[in-house]
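[Q] Does anyone have a clean structure-token version of this?
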Amino acid sequence: MQSHFLIITGMSGAGKTQVVRTLEDLNFFCIDNLPATLIPKFAELCRQTSEDKVALVVDIRGGRFFDKLLQVLDEMEASGQKYELLFLDASDATLVRRYKETRRRHPLGERNTLLKNITCERELLDPLREKATHIIDTSTLTTAQLKAKVTEMFGEGSSKERMGIVVRSFGFKHGLPLDSDLVLDVRFLPNPFYVEELRNMTGNDRPVADFICRYPQTFQYLKLEEQLLDFLVPQYINEGKAQLVISVGCTGGQHRSVFIVNKLYEYLREKGYSVDVTHRDIPHRK
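[A] Here you go.
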């Protein structure tokens, strides 16, 4: 696992909040608005506790504490403490538009115009921008594009591994799973429930699987779903989605949906995706 001690700074309104949310999804331990003078002590604490993915936001909201950031970074370098500095930037026009849209007050206050505050902040941050190990200009980036860029820079594994997929079986009579992104209905398949010797089994049992596999529509349906997932899943990854929940339902959630979920799980695993399988309503059987 790659180690990161990441310090995030940059222009107010350039997207630091969105970057922190993305890093949290990448399992970073994140702290916002930490006084600069506390950074070396915190870095030492992280080393002692083996915390190897840390992100700190330090910006002009820190007031007089922020003024010490350059000095603190120089001291860390002199003592051999390693860090990365991510600087977020955006054009003046973009920052003005974002402030107008959100109606937020600039951290430098209201004594000057918004554009004057942006100009002043840019001058204060210039030395840090020159020192940055990473610079992201968010002027033309959508939220999804910014998330994808941060994930590419600081995420681990392939893009397929970064988005988690959950494939879940459920029974419609027990209610629709509220966190579903995709809901598939397989109640059109012949129901093993009406075969007495299969009634108390589940789709995990071989006799139930053999029963469902007798019908050609089972494989026709699986083929169509595989084609759908081949198209959809890469689109979700490109949009920066962190998790995709695919819920497959039948009447009781014990037979048909369980079998289909197991098949989709196997297919997605073979494609190299990070996928988990759950059968929500199997515990409901009597």
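[Q] Thanks! Anything notable?
[A] The first strand starts at residue 4 and ends at 10.
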